[in-house]
Amino acid sequence: MDRKILLGIGIGLVLGVIFMFGYKYTASLSDSQIEEKARALGMIYESERKSILKGDN
Q1: In angstroms, what CA-CA distances link 7 with 11, 18, 19?
Q2: Residues whose CB falls within 8 Å of the CB of residue 37, separated by 6 or more in sequence, listed in order
Q3: pLDDT at 46
Q4: Where are the transmembrane segments (predicted)?
Q5: Which tens digits make up the pLDDT trace of 8-35?
Q6: What span, in angstroms and rounded, lies between the C-alpha atoms of 45 and 2?
Q7: For a pLDDT cut of 90, what percent of the chain falls above it?
Q8: What is the pTM of this model?
Q9: How far apart are CA 55 and CA 48, in angstroms?
Q10: Angstrom distance (rounded) from CA 26 to CA 29
Q11: In whole angstroms, what is the distance from residue 4 CA to residue 1 CA?
């Protein structure tokens, strides 16, 4: 039973590596485009956040 599991894992890894060799990823977004998308998803900078501190009224 253990041999079959290890064989299956090994075959899966080999097939995964073969498929990944054919995958080409290019980062085509500029820094400003990445920031625009992040802001659309709710990103804010630390300096833009309002904080309420104890003792300040």
Answers
A1: 6, 17, 18
A2: 29
A3: 83
A4: 5-23
A5: 999 999 999 999 888 877 778 888 999 9
A6: 51
A7: 47
A8: 0.41
A9: 21
A10: 9
A11: 5
